[in-house]
Design brief:
6-stranded mixed beta sheet, about 350 residues, Dihydrodipicolinate Reductase, domain 2, alpha/beta, 2 domains
Length: about 350
């Protein structure tokens, strides 16, 4: 990023997708100091206009020239596009924050959630890494909740069951549910089965160990972000017919004994978390709670009835925002502040 002035030219690759549009919205809402903006999408959308901060910008196709002079490039166009264009954008001087799975487990690419490991954004000399990976949506919200617990008590094992929105599959996922609710026949390639009035315990393809790729992302990404390979994660990921907001039920085994009221106070005071935990008032997080919000909502905090040093909780977050767009913009904010 240029240090010669205060400019910050921002590009969004995938500007016409659900996450890309949400990135633009979050940039506006958080008043990100972008002094110029470049929307980028496929040839199908090139030449069309998008509005950013009340100004019209023409969508351009990706090329080395398009990324020239860009300071921060937010990518959300899928892993194939990221593998092709992220190295090119970085070679042109842009700092790439990539929302796809392309680089998440690359050893030399940081995988960042700003509430957890913001220091990983930077090299030893204090400059940002050229490519920074945004974690999977289901991982992001979980590690935000785990971070304060791990720092105080040590997290040994997490059993997690997810209840994930159809928008985790982007516009296609949302459209499939809407079509089914309208009574239209659908090919079941998007969610593998009918999603309306259903719950599908498969997100992404199965691997040889019986877990899906989505589940293994939660295993491997959690360890990398938390910087601790000793943490065991046992996930089951499920798609449900809601439009926005992923829910997760966590069973967390800690290394130290804890006081449950102390845990609640710790969570309530931790960055990026809103505690909603009053069962007597039926107060607990729901997908509607998180809609269009950037925080991770935590509730149903309680001691495991059978296992010592283990607690249960329920967390919800907007998967298009904190689970994707907002987390990427927050990484960019850390870079700008450091500059």
């Amino acid at each position: 990023m240029s240090k010669r002035d205060s400019r910050c030219k921002v590009a969004v690759l995938g500007a016409t997708g659900l996450v890309g549009r949400t990135m633009m919205k979050v940039l506006e809402e958080r008043n990100f100091p972008a002094t110029d903006f470049v929307p980028i999408a496929s040839a199908r959308s090139a030449g069309q206009n998008v509005t950013f901060r009340g100004q019209e910008f023409v969508i351009r196709e990706p090329s080395a020239e398009v990324f020239r002079d860009v300071d921060i490039a937010l990518f959300s166009a899928g892993a194939t596009a990221s593998r092709e264009w992220a190295p090119i954008a970085a070679a042109e001087g842009a700092i790439v924050i990539d929302n796809s799975s392309a680089f998440r487990m690359e050893p030399n690419v940081p995988l960042v959630v700003p509430e957890v490991n913001p220091g990983d954004i930077f090299k030893a000399d204090g400059t940002p890494e050229p490519i920074i990976a945004n974690p999977n949506c289901s991982t992001i919200q979980m590690v935000v909740a785990l971070k304060p617990l791990h720092d105080k008590y040590g997290v040994k094992r997490v059993i997690v069951s997810t209840y994930q929105s159809v928008t985790g599959k982007g516009k296609a996922g949302r459209d499939a549910l809407e079509s089914e609710l309208a009574g239209e026949a659908q090919e079941q390639f998007t969610h593998f089965h009918q999603i309306a009035f259903n719950a599908v315990p498969q997100i992404d393809a199965f691997t040889e160990n019986g877990y899906t790729k989505e589940e293994m992302k939660m295993v491997n990404e959690t360890r990398k972000i938390m910087g601790d390979d000793s943490i065991s994660v046992s996930p089951t990921t499920v798609r449900i017919p809601v439009y926005g907001g992923h829910g997760e039920a966590l069973n967390i085994e800690l290394a130290k004994e804890f006081d449950i009221d102390e845990v609640r106070a710790l969570l309530a005071s931790s960055p990026g978390i809103i505690l909603q935990d009053d069962p007597s008032a039926r107060l607990y997080p729901m997908p509607l709670t998180s809609y269009e919000r950037d925080e991770v909502f935590v509730g149903r905090v309680r001691r495991d009835y059978w296992h010592p040093q283990t607690l249960n909780m329920w967390i919800v977050s907007d998967n298009l925002r904190k689970g994707a767009a907002t987390n990427a913009v927050q990484i960019a904010e850390v870079i700008v502040v450091k500059r």
